[in-house]
Amino acid sequence: MVRIRLRRIGMKGQPSYRIVAADKESPRDGRFLEILGMYNPRTEPATITVKEDRVFDWMNKGAQLSDSVEQIFKSAGVLDRWQRFKAGEDIENLMTEAAEAAGKRNVSSKTRQD
Q1: Which of 1, 79, 81, 106 makes a 20 to 30 Å CA pair with 50?
Q2: Smallest Cα–Cα separation from 22: which of 38, 7, 41, 37?
Q3: What does pTM read for this prediction?
Q4: Packing angle, helices 78-86 and 67-76, rounded to 10
Q5: What span, in angstroms and rounded, lies between the C-alpha atoms of 88 and 66?
């Protein structure tokens, strides 16, 4: 079974995470199938980038979300767009809305670029 989950990267004490599609049996930082995004909790606000079209594709194929990824997607609005995609809304409209939301979400004078 494929699971969408976090993969830890970064130095000791300075974690950031990749959102990946990986087999359920693979170790946390082990083999994965595809990188779907990035999550950095150390910035203010947390930096979230997601390839939503690829996430929707994996979820259509039956991929399950981990609890932490589900919370991240809720805060980014990905799960709301997923529900609308399942209801039959056009993917192009959802992707333009996602790009606008990402532009608004990651704008802050306090955000550090590492």
Answers
A1: 1
A2: 7
A3: 0.82
A4: 90
A5: 25
Place of tokens 């609308």: 84
Decide which of 109 and 99 is more confident.
Answer: 99
Counting every residue written for the chain, the total comes to: 114
Find, among 3, 59, 48, 62, the residue nearest to 27 by Cα.
3
Tokens of 87: 């209801």
For residues 34-67, one letter each, b for 16 or more C-beta atoms within 10 angstroms of the residue's C-beta and e for the rest, the string is: eebbebbeebeebbbebbbebbbebbeeebebee
> How does DSSP classify residue 69?
H
Domain ranges of the chain: 2-105
